[in-house]
Amino acid sequence: MISSFRGQYKEVWRELLANKISLLFMILALVLSLTAINTIYALGKSAEKQVLEVLSNLNFGKDALLILAGGQRFMGLTPTRTDTLKLEDVQSIERLTGVKLTSPVSGGVLEVRYRDQAEKIRVEGVFPIFTLANNWQVVLGRFITEEDLQGLRKVAVVGGDIPKKFNLKQPLGEKIMISGEYFIIIGVLENKPSFSHFPLNERIYVPFTTAQRRLFNRDYLTGIKVLLFSGEDLKSMRERIRSLLRQRHKINFLAPDDFRIITPEMIVARYLATAKILQNFLLAISLVSLVISGVVILNLMSAAIEEKAGIIALRRALGASCKTIFFHYLLMSLNIALLSGLAGWLLSLGLMYLISVFTPLKPLFSWLTFLLSFFFSTLTAIIFSIGPAYRATRVDPAILLKSL
Amino acid sequence: MTNPIIRLQEIRKTYVIGKVSYEVLRGINLEVYPQDFLAIMGPSGGGKSTLLNILGLLDKPTSGSYLFGGIEVSTLKEKEMARIRNQRIGFVFQAFHLVPWASALENVILPVLYRGDGIKKEDIRRAEELLARVGLGGKKHLKPAELSGGEQQRVAIVRALINRPILLLADEPTGNLDSKNSREVLGLLKELNEEGLTIIMVTHDPEVAKTAKEIKYLRDGVFVES
To answer: What is the distance between the terminal CA atoms of chain A, rounded to a whole angstrom?
Structure first.
């Protein structure tokens, strides 16, 4: 049986190679759309992976939550109060089992001056735990300490891009003016990869107490970063924190939340929303092109079968059953599919490397796209060759005898 | 008396094209015994090819009974018919019908491929012996296009013999050949018949028909006296 299959397999290849132009076009038709599908899919995945990498680098992986003051925005406005998130809330969240640590933040965009240069910069009041919560260390000097907090010291730790922004060659010890108050730079944070709309490295961090009293003059927070012990269920934790905060803020059951709990997935989804739409659109186009490839295969296979009707009739006369003939042509299209699948995948890898030269997107090597490529090519080839293969079984062996 | 290989009783074949029906065979009765060499002659449109198609299990009769080796084959399923074609019947065609991309040897092996039990060493040895016997031992790796008409027909005959059939059906086997090659091919058929192979040959050339032991005339769908 195996030897008989091998014989038939050889026959299939002989027949394919007998018409190289037709073979080339069938493969080409599939390869083009497969390359497109693979590349688009892989680049989408790669973008997602990059966003996730950035987030996990900030300790915002799967075990983290972010609580922001103010409820859901409606047309850019927050209909709820934004001044209800307090340090007492943080303490009660910390008491929940499963919570590893919390890092409250109070921030805003303020005018920052150095000599005659002024910039609008996001300034955040934080606790020493901030570095741990965000996996973010200083490369120069030191971070904010308990003593800074207790003494309401006017010290600042700046993001990695700030010295460049203000042209500071020796930032440590320099004085910058934030909202009319002088702050001494005591540390510079390492550079973190971040998204273009969210320049983390252009922020300034000051002691929480100093920020509340001297910069913002308020007693509420703008956000809390919560880290959970690994293995905690993010969804249920989110619900627990939500009901705790609703209870603490005395929100009646009809009123909306006056805070937002952000999970890493939400950030990923938000950053990829536009990309996703574009990607889906392109994938849809590629799928249409795959159908077109299928039609090309359908045509070429039909033509081949019409052209080889004599040989098919001969095979039938020599004892090939309809099943054998059907299998023969299905095997043929399967061969084309596998060859195209491989070529499409390799080409898409090449294309991605090329794209990565010109864009920040990184090429993604994935066995999933490999399988995807084979899946789509096999699916297309099989679907569109069932018709011609069936027609081949309908070739009448009697046509061999022409002498009526 | 031995049993006939073939027994046709009141075989009829009607083709319906649109609303018109053509009765091509109108009650054929025929018995063919082992080692017979029968030539069927007759004018074009007389039903020779239709009869050969039915004899070769390439087509089914509209009515009548066809016993092949004692088995009623007119009602067999397509798969069983294919198996009998493969193992019991050899075909030789006017236009040779060799697979163009396969070598002489591969063409000969083709029926073995459809036998279903794989190509064995003996099969290849037998194919080579048969090719050598018809004088093509040195040309077994050539493609059909590199062979002359006579050589191609000899390859086709060897192909028909590879699965040791009991019946050889030949449709105008010399129709595309010159007289020298015709003589060679007919000589080969005669030799095979003498060795015990039953042959039915369709031709409209009386000279060719003379090779056979018996000649029958088919006209308007029935056998007639010449």
So the answer is: 38
Q: Provide CB contacts within 8 A for B18, sequence distance 6+.
A: none
pLDDT tens-digit map of A121-164:
999 999 999 999 988 999 999 999 999 999 999 999 999 999 99
Q: Does B53 touch chain A (CB under 8 A)?
A: yes
The complex scores an ipTM of 0.90
Q: Is the pLDDT of residue A404 over 50?
A: no
CA nearest to B57, candidates A328, A394, A316: A316
Q: Is B50 on the interface with A (CB under 8 A)?
A: yes
Nearest to B38 by CA among B169, B181, B173: B169
Alpha helices in A58-82 (DSSP H): none
Q: Please give the C-alpha separations between residue B27 and each of A280, B13, B15, in angstroms, as whole numbers.
A: 68, 8, 14
| Residue in the structure block whose two tokens are 């192979």 | B197
Taking an 8 Å Cβ-Cβ cutoff, which residues of chain A contact chain B? 1-4, 7-8, 11, 14-15, 17-18, 310-311, 314-324, 396-398, 400-404
Chain B residues with CB under 8 Å of A404 CB are 44-45, 48-50
Q: Give A310→chain B minimum CA distance, Å.
A: 8
Is the distance from CB of B201 to CB of B157 less than 8 angstroms?
A: no
Please answer whether residues B42 and B218 qualify as being in contact, where contact means their C-beta atoms are separated by less than 8 angstroms.
yes
Give the distance from residue B47's alpha carbon to the nearest chain A alpha carbon, in angstroms: 6
Is B171 in CB contact (< 8 Å) with chain A? yes
Q: What is the pTM of this model?
A: 0.71
